C-alpha cells in the first residue's frame, strides 16, 4: 500500500503549518506520485532549492514509498498575496 494524499497533506500541515496547501495524487491512486503547491512562512528568506529541500525533509518517511514528488509552488505568504493581486489585475485588464 502506497502513501495517501491525506498522509502527505497531514504531514506537511503538521510540519510546515502552510497557509495554503494543495496535494494532487497523480499516480492514479497507488500513492507513488504527487504534485504539491504549498505556501508557508517557513520559506521566508529561503531560495527555491532550500524550500524544496524543506518539503522533501518534511516528507522523509513518505518519500521512502513515493517515486515522484513535483513541487509546483513553494512560496511565502507574501509571494502568494502578490500572485493573487497580479492575477486579479490581469483579469481586470482583460475584462
UniProtKB/TrEMBL annotation:
GO molecular function: 2 iron, 2 sulfur cluster binding
InterPro entries, A to Z: BOL2, BolA, BolA-like_sf
Membrane-spanning parts: none
Annotated Gene Ontology cellular component terms: cytosol; nucleus
One Pfam family of this chain: BolA
Top-level taxon of the source organism: Eukaryota
GO biological process: intracellular iron ion homeostasis; protein maturation; response to stress
Family note: Belongs to the BolA/IbaG family.
PANTHER family attached to this UniProt entry: BOLA-LIKE PROTEIN 2, BOLA-LIKE PROTEIN-RELATED
Name of this chain's protein: Protein BOLA2
Species: Acer negundo
